[in-house]
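Record type: monomer structure entry
Structure origin: computed from sequence
Chain ID: A
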Amino acid sequence: MNEIVKRRSELLVENQKVMTKSFIFEHSITNAIVAAAFAEKDRNVDVDAIKDARNLLKKRKGVFSDFRAYNELIVSARMALSGNPEGYLDSLIDVYDKFKKGKLFGSSYKVLAAMSICDQGKYNDADRLVEKTNDLLKKMNKAHPMLTSDEDTCFAVLLAMTDKSVDDILTELEEAYGILKSDFAFHKDAVFSLAQVLTAYEGNAAEKSSKALDFFNAFKAAGAKYGKDYELASLGALIDIDADKDELVSDVIGVADHIKGKKGFGILDMGRETRLMFGTMLVTGAYLSADYNTETSSLGRDIGRIVALQTAILITMMIVVATTAAASASH
């Protein structure tokens, strides 16, 4: 395990301890997302800053707002990490309102998409990006109405940030999906998300799809099967890293094994597939960080990390929503 990965893996565990102690009513995976976000910045989690940001968020948005719901803590953490919580929230609300314009309902996914635009420093380009994202979603839905949903906003916004035209994106997306779907026959939604992630990178669709499959098989060969559900999309974050495939796989597994059984990462908190996803998130950030001597070939260091973070947050939302629904049904 390289030194940056090792350092951040240890920091992730420490941050999660603090999060589970400070936010005892939050889902352990939500806490882990925040812990990982701070670790990815080589920072100890700042509970006071998160609570201050959360109080600010509560003053600005009511309890039924899409900014609260399932991602309140995550939004608060991104506010705290920004260094200017109030300014970040102003920008985030403004971009979200652009996504919601003309629509009866918003969604937590649109908040996440708006977050990506703000985190990428593309607030000034928000109008164009929102328009391009909506155009992509409209045409994706026309081609695949059973596969396209509001969740896809999270990845479509990444595609909108590229220099590719909408038509080129859709053509490449269709090719990648066509290649991958036969290998994951009963997981078409997850494959569609993975295809979107792969399309965000430069290069030939067939070659990128082949690299993703190679990574999936490498994890399987190493005795650590990668998740075929929402986790699958995070696999795409590894394909653009200039490092040996087996080394990357080993590091991801190393992180997953290191955090297993630690507070907030136990068997009652998450499965191995989710721990592997956290490993991918941490490893991607480490290899694409400024202090690791590597070249990135397309979207750049920041957006490469955003791919992993987007997927992790999306998985978190799905798990928390499912858990909440199950708990409500039992009552």
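Annotation 1: The first helix runs from residue 3 to 22.
Annotation 2: The chain has one domain: 3-330.
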